[in-house]
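Predict the 3D structure for this chain.
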Amino acid sequence: MGGQSTQDAGFAKLYQRNQPRVDPLVIPRAMANAGASHISMEFGITGPAYTVSTACSSSNHAIGQAFWMVRNGMVDLAIAGGSEAPFSFGFLKAWEALRIMSPDTCRPFSKDRRGLILGEGGAMLILEPLATARARDATIHAEVMGFGMSSDAHHLTHLSSDGPVRAMRAALRDALLLPEQVGYINAHGSGTLVNDPLETRAIRELFGAHADRLAVSSTKSLHGHSLGATGAMEAICTVLALKNGLLPPTANYTEPDPDCDLDVVPNRARPAQVEYALSNSFAFGGLNAVLAFRAPQ
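Done. Predicted structure below.
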């Protein structure tokens, strides 16, 4: 989403001030595919160009599909990620009405968490075959190893643990990885009372005893929940964690929650050499998308 303030201003003219005309750029600015179209025009990209809209999983779905297209030889190179610029007074009030917004800050997995904090932003990845990147002496930040997705078929706003388990398992299967090979998970970790325990349960169900050896952090505590862009931002956090050997923390953490009994890397970044990691995105509507990454070799 973008151009939300332009749209709001246009509707205010129409409904409040009875002005019959609105800005002719309302639709071009607000349409979801504007970002993809601008990138295509700027760089002269004439291959497949489209926008995925699956709420908070949009970026992971986009990156995952781009990864498959590159791996299967459908495209030589892909630019994939997401952006979100939704802020307006009305939009923020609509989120507030869901009663999942924190009144102070985002504290994922902490017992005193009170909800999420919205953010705006964008992030993009360039994906190409490893041999091609090496041939042109590109800087390789990490490898995308696998992608998995699922639908809860459960509820519009409440997660189930079954869908996330199936999405994580599908990503591992696509990457030809065993659960025990994963050392870090960038969690969806929205900071809500319901979602964090469900994600914890899903991780424990899939990883079993290995869950006690996993580092699991939520960078939403640092950059907020940027909705459709959040998967791309978290993918980059995961990639940089693997590349630099430094796991990002779960900030604002104050008190352990027995229902979120994972190693959440509380408050301080942690030096650690990890080879494989997952990045989770679990969206409203029960749409789940998980990426598997490998540290650069």
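The chain has a mean pLDDT of 94.
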